[in-house]
Amino acid sequence: MHLNPYGEDAVNLAADLANHRPAGPEELADRCRAAGLTVERPVTPRDLDRTLAALEAWEKVVDASDENEHAELVNRMLAEAAAYPRLTDHADTGWHLRYRDDQKPLGSVLFSLFSVGTALHLAGRGMHRLRRCDVTECTTIFADTSRTGRRRYCSQRCANRDAVRRHRARSAA
Fold it and tell me: What is the pLDDT of residues 15-28, one digit of tens each?
């Protein structure tokens, strides 16, 4: 996976895994590959545990109450995942920056990707652009990559549901 300047790929993978937790190591590996991540080593139950812990930390960033808390929580993740960036052409995918040490297990790789990708996303796009859906009964997390940065819903379905609810409330009043 090549991190783009805004961290979009990493935060979208984190959101996907957070919204629908992988049930086992094979599912984790398959979903990472589907997202474009090169999985270089066998995925173990320990990788799954580390990934679930990373997602717990990442969800705290999503649910932070203000920009300072977002920054503090991302900085904690970055400190835990600290490795110097390096230029690499692993797996012959083209030269790019890699924000982790070589030969790390997948769980550690994902922790690094989530922390660096989230920092890049929030700093590049705006601290408000990682959130949960505005529909009260929906807890889906999404990264707002829209041009305007004003996305409120995880999907068109939730946007329509909320519009219908508001319309019915106005009609009843």
Answer: 999 999 999 999 99
Question: Which residue do the tokens 């320990």 mark?
Answer: 46
User: Tokens at residue 76, please?
Assistant: 């904690």
- In whole angstroms, give the CA distance from residue 85 to residue 166: 48
Closest CA to 149 of 29, 3, 6, 15: 6
**Which two structure tokens, joined as six digits, stand for 114?**
């989530």
Helix (H, G, I), strand (E, B) or coil at 80: helix
CA gap 164, 153 in Å, rounded: 14
Structural tokens at position 65:
């109450």
pLDDT in tens, 53-77: 999 999 999 999 999 999 999 999 9
151: left (phi over 0), alpha (psi -120 to 50) or beta: beta
Q: Residues 102-154: pLDDT tens digits?
A: 778 999 999 999 999 999 999 999 999 999 999 999 999 999 999 999 999 99
The residue whose two tokens read 């990493």 is: 10
pTM of the predicted structure, to 2 decimals: 0.87
Both tokens assigned to 155: 């999907």
Q: How does strand 86-88 pair with strand 130-132? A: unpaired
What gap in Å lies between CA 55 and CA 11, rounded to an integer? 11
